[in-house]
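Table S4 entry, Transposase.
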Amino acid sequence: MCRVLDVSASGYHSWRRRPPSTRRQEDALLQQRIQGIHVRTKGRYGAPRIHAELRAEGVRVSRKRVTRLIRASRLSGKGKRHWVRTTDSEHVLPVSLNLLERQFHVHHPNQVWASDITYLPTREGWLYLAVTLDLHSRAVVGYAMEAHMHASLPLAALQMAASRRDPPPGLLHHSDRGSQYASRIFQEALARLRAKESMSRKGDCWDNAVVESFFSSLKRELFEDNIFENRMVARQAIFEYIEVFYNRQRRHSTLGYLTPHEFERQAKAA
């Protein structure tokens, strides 16, 4: 090998005996921390969020270096996946105007909430999930899960959010045009909260993009590699994802890679 590469044998053996450089030692330690974050987040983070997590732990490192070490470790975050929408807008119930108009950046909590419904696979059948997000911090403030998608499902998510947050009059609640949100019982619940209703335009998922993004993250990070045995197991996994991981640990690029709880805490202290 030395003859082919035109390298002296003494030079080769000297290189073999030489200890790893400081840079290589630092890279090895960084790789260990990166692998630890990857395991702790169950493979949900790619380079941007791993970089943000390292910075939050006090590690000063460039994103380019993190990306290089992730590739060297053959790690990757969970990629995007297409899921079918569940909206039933073919009904005769009255619908509201789109008052939100894609103004997703909200300066204070409990000013604008956004809601939607999706379905998730289990070996027992579909599990339907309704969520309510506060657009100020992207926090999930209410959620409900059932084996059906009747109007009582998003109503339960709204009631959880209201009991947790006690929103002031004038709250703007945004959803799609689904029959559940246009139903009498849901509209009456909004009236009791003295909230205003806003609905997406027909067939335009971008009008409710924040909730769509949440569903995309949940399905990619929780369900992509799993078909849960039954609805109860899926319920437990979703509860852990929302209450433990998403609201308290998951870093959001829109929030400057803060978690929803960190963002709300800093906003309150400002």
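The chain is about 45% helix and 10% strand.
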